[in-house]
Design brief:
The chain is of the alpha+beta class and about 150 residues long. The longest helix has 22 residues. Strands 2-3-1-4 form a 4-stranded antiparallel beta sheet, covered by helices on one side. The chain contains 5 helices and 4 strands; from the N terminus they run βαββαβααα.
């Protein structure tokens, strides 16, 4: 069995009961094709970045589930024709625990790197010394003054 995540955006003009009914239908589709729902995350009503089917907002829901490889295609076929589903997307959730651990390890390494790279306040930076020398040197005037006069 593979792990998947389904993002579903439901019509924002529906009341709570209708929204719950649509979400329940989507969950029943997953179970009908042999899927096991692990988590349902409801983000609530959000405004779209642009109009979708002449609507400005929708209810965002994310469903994590496990299913056979053929199930997502069948689920998408059924969701595609549901009237109150504005958008949907099924992605493979390959290694969620591994990805989280890698992200945490990178963040820890970055914080250690920043601690080691912090400059000491008492010593002047080499860049500051070089700029001071350039500022103190007199600017050279053009050698050909006769060209300016003409």
């Amino acid at each position: 069995m593979n792990k998947y995540e389904l993002a579903v955006v439901i019509n924002g003009k529906l009341d709570e009961d209708d929204k719950s009914a649509v979400l329940k239908k989507v969950q029943e589709l997953i179970e009908r094709f042999g899927g096991t729902i692990k988590n349902v995350d409801e983000w609530g009503k959000k405004r779209f970045a642009y109009e979708v089917h002449k609507k400005k907002d929708g209810y965002y829901n994310f469903i994590k589930f496990e299913a056979e490889a053929a199930a997502p295609g069948e689920i998408e076929k059924r969701i595609r024709i549901m009237e109150n589903v504005e958008r949907y997307l099924i992605v493979i959730d390959e290694h969620p625990d591994l990805i989280r651990k890698e992200t945490e390890a990178k963040a820890a390494a970055k914080s250690e790197e920043q601690e080691l790279a912090e400059p000491v306040e008492d010593e002047p930076k080499p860049e500051e010394e070089n700029t001071a020398e350039v500022e103190d040197s007199p600017e050279e005037e053009p050698a050909d003054d006769s060209a300016k006069a003409e």
